[in-house]
Amino acid sequence: MSQSLKFSVISKVSDSKARAGFFETGHGIVETPAFMPVGTQGTVKAVNQNLLEQDIKAQILLSNTYHLYLRPGTEILEKAGGLHKFMNWSKPILTDSGGYQVYSLSSLRKLKEDGVEFRSHLDGSTHFFSPEKVIQIQRSIGSDIMMVLDECTPYPCDFEYAENSTELTSRWAILNKEAFENSEQLYDHQQFLFGIIQGSIYKELREKSAEGLKKLDFNGYAIGGLAVGEPAEVMYDITNFTTDLMPEDKPRYLMGVGRPENILESIDRGIDMFDCVMPTRNARHGVLFTTQGVLTLTNSKFKEDFEKVDEYCDCYTCKNYSRAYLRHLFNAGELLALELASIHNLHFYISLVVEARRRILDGSFNKWKNEIIKKISIKNNPREIGMEE
Amino acid sequence: MSQSLKFSVISKVSDSKARAGFFETGHGIVETPAFMPVGTQGTVKAVNQNLLEQDIKAQILLSNTYHLYLRPGTEILEKAGGLHKFMNWSKPILTDSGGYQVYSLSSLRKLKEDGVEFRSHLDGSTHFFSPEKVIQIQRSIGSDIMMVLDECTPYPCDFEYAENSTELTSRWAILNKEAFENSEQLYDHQQFLFGIIQGSIYKELREKSAEGLKKLDFNGYAIGGLAVGEPAEVMYDITNFTTDLMPEDKPRYLMGVGRPENILESIDRGIDMFDCVMPTRNARHGVLFTTQGVLTLTNSKFKEDFEKVDEYCDCYTCKNYSRAYLRHLFNAGELLALELASIHNLHFYISLVVEARRRILDGSFNKWKNEIIKKISIKNNPREIGMEE
């Protein structure tokens, strides 16, 4: 019988739903709000694990079940002793269930009552993911937090499609929980399972989804099906509505979000956990986040700018290199550009949630949030690249 | 008036011309034999400066005048305060003169008495390198060791072409030395100038070239025009012949060499300094050097091999990751593969010359060299990629 995830909320804010807390896994504590760098294939693109831990100070990574299942495959992961050992990462890992990638990457997806058939984006081979199967794969991976198989509805999505899809996700959730209870961990640390609330932009569907999942008593709850193209205001509204339906004593995870201001606005609406490819993907295109807004370092205006990327940042990149040097590296097509920019952007995201946590603890979150969003908002930074991979 | 480079030979071997020594620059001491990682565009491909210094323990880098002149250009380098500051590298830097890249990379090269006209490989723009010009560019770069402009003869090369070319290089050497003496350093460290002995595979030309250069009293002497396609035995023979012509009390640099066994055989023949793209370029193709021979990590036979790349290596890669993980990263096209493999190969090369130095000091160089070459020789490792960039 598995134990509950120990999640403690240690501070709330009076004028906001924001909360600071922490939870414990076999690979250590995660302080919330938390941002999880995305390590799709068992590596955060362009950044080594030492920098992730020591400089960027990531407390938890996300990795993708769909990708790891296809490559290197569960057999190799099991022989390695799980993903932590395979990639040499001793802190917590969360894996998604693969549902989103089946929807976004694979061809010829066939949704059936008992799961989803799809073709690999790598070689066209046919595979089948069921709730039982994705639990089994995540047992092989050994992630600290596993996610249930769901269907991620697209945007826009009509009510009937969303209703049927959400009901399917709810039926799968039961099977996921059963498979979780009936399976054993393969390694010497406990694994936890989070449910995913779907329902597109329809509040009555979100409500039904949340009610169904809560009965199953998951270790945490995620909001899925947002950040798929809907306006930010809609995302905030649905997030705000849905967090009211979620247990107070379990972590709340908003999947795939987002821009820096999306993260702060969602913390304000009661979210504890985030993941997004934005910091790393923008970095690889020379788009860097700073406390003063976005810099596009491929721009020639930086060629004689010997300042650091962000004067308030103490990441490895900002401590050692100038904008002009990074601009040169991008201009010359050098690989080091991708590493240095990725380090900075991940450090920015992690520092942002760490600062948010500090502000929640000292009661100044809302005031700080409104000030910083003015500087970093997408409205003033049109060169950012979106969050959809 | 510039001071001489202080070069001390501290140990020689009785059964070999191998020697251990060191020289001092304004950016610190370089122990010889030394291997210089190649940082063509002001960055060693895929490896950050912290790892280069702390893990790989590079004592000196090579950077390319041709590339830096085209991008970012001397104006930006001067505004940055020189290349050391621009790239944040506090140890010594050697720059080539650009002669080799004009020969290997540019189109429409026109050799004239007073220099060489060429078109940029980047945008086709026309440029002119003279002996004076390349000194001026290297003053802007601020490299600790500058190289003279030369013509690098191709292989094969008939005697008449080689003779004319070598005489031109010798006339340019005089102009280089004059330009060096008549120009000032731009930053607060002294720069030194090395001459380059040419002469293709013709010993009488090597002799004439060396005699001419020695009269000019350079701070060190390089052998150019080897490692351009000739058989290894020819390279060794010309190297051995030429080092006898070179001053005992100045560093001897064999340009662009080479495979690990080429380096050891050339140390045996009296060479002190090396540079080569082989470690980094092979790394990016998944070809890793080890004390037991070469591993091609893209090979599927490594997919369940959880050993370190080289059991005797203590680089960041070997201390933290397995062959199976690296194989996965290469297979999945992940950027981290390039970094981890480059770290290992550079660490291998530097460790090789450090060990050679230790063996020279304790008198066991020749015996050790013959044993290790059996394991690492190209004859047993056909998958290596050549040294020509």
Keywords:
homodimer; 389 residues; three-stranded antiparallel beta sheet; 15 helices
Biggest sheet: strand arrangement of chain A: 4-14-13-12-11-10-6-5
- Shape descriptor of chain A reads globular
% residues in beta strands of chain A: 15-25%
Amino-to-carboxy terminus distance of chain A: 37 Å
Q: Using only CA atoms, what is the Rg of chain A?
A: 20 Å
**Biggest protein-protein contact in the assembly:** A-B, 38 and 38 residues
Structure classification of chain A: alpha/beta
Mean pLDDT of chain A: 95
The protein's oligomeric status is homodimer
Count of helices of chain A?
15
Number of E-state strands of chain A: 16
Low-pLDDT residue spans of chain A: none
Sheet bearing the most strands of chain A, described? 8 strands, parallel
Walk me through the topology.
Two copies of one chain form a homodimer.
Chain A: E1 7-12, E2 19-25, E3 28-32, E4 34-36, H1 49-54, E5 61-63, H2 65-70, H3 74-80, H4 83-87, E6 93-95, H5 99-104, E7 107-112, E8 115-119, E9 126-129, H6 131-141, E10 145-147, H7 159-181, E11 192-197, H8 203-215, E12 220-223, H9 232-243, E13 252-254, H10 260-268, E14 273-275, H11 278-284, E15 287-290, E16 293-296, H12 316-320, H13 323-331, H14 335-362, H15 365-376
Parallel strand pairs in A: 4-14, 5-6, 6-10, 10-11, 11-12, 12-13, 13-14
Antiparallel strand pairs in A: 1-2, 2-3, 7-8, 8-9, 15-16
Helix pairs in contact in A: 6-7, 7-8, 10-14, 10-15, 11-14, 13-14, 14-15
